[in-house]
Amino acid sequence: MQDRYGPSLPLRVIENAGQAVSLAFGLPFYNYTGVLIGATAIPVWNESINELPIHFGMSGLSSAVGMLELMGHRKSRALQWLGLGAGIFECMEELRIETHRLECLDPLRNGASGAVVRVGGVLSGPVSLGLRVLSFLSRGEQARDLRKWAAISAIAGSLITRFGWLHAGDVSAQDWREPLRIPHPSKSEIESHSE
């Protein structure tokens, strides 16, 4: 604000108070969405209860970095490093989703919900990370443009990822047996009941 309106005591007080309130309330609750949806009977969410808070936290961090950069803070190396760290974590989370072959995680990989989760993950992970790495290797206007596109990719990916996880939860909840851990009947059981 001081860049826009000039230095003044009231602005410094407002800025410092805003930062203190953000720190006091933002830090403990930045990943609370992941905690809430993980602590449910929805199979895909419940199976990911340990990863969801961290995943949503890093996704939120990536979005916050992107928004700050789009608002003009493209010279901050700290934001660049935060964005890189969040991008690396998003790549690791996508790898976890792809390699854990539990049946209850299928909505994250298959169908429309899987496509949405994958698109969001690619945008917030490898695409954003790649653009940030390229911006480190570039100079001047090209580096700023790459950071801008990394920010846009991270924000879009984070938003899409959230919709993907919600849709995956909806798909996962369709199978009433899964939350109760009731096994699916085998073909022989189905055939014996139909006779």
Number of domains: 2
Task: Kindly state the percentage of residues in helix.
Answer: over 70%
Shape category: elongated
* Structure summary, number of beta strands: 0
Q: Which percent range describes the beta-strand content?
A: under 5%
Tell me the number of helical segments per DSSP (H or I, 4 or more residues long): 10
Intertermini distance: 77 Å
Radius of gyration: 21 Å
* Series of H and E elements: HHHHHHHHHH
The overall pLDDT, averaged over residues, is: 84
Structural class: mainly alpha
Question: How would a textbook summarize the main sheet?
Answer: none
Provide key terms for this protein.
77% helix; elongated; 10 helices; mainly alpha; 0% strand; 195 residues
What does this structure look like?
The protein is mainly alpha-helical. It contains 10 helices and no strands. The chain is elongated. The protein starts with a helix and ends with a helix. The mean pLDDT is 84.
Quick summary:
The protein is mostly helical and 195 residues long.
Structural topology:
Elements: H1 2-5, H2 9-29, H3 32-38, H4 43-47, H5 52-70, H6 77-99, H7 111-137, H8 140-172, H9 177-180, H10 187-194
Helix pairs in contact: 3-5, 5-6, 5-8, 6-7, 7-8
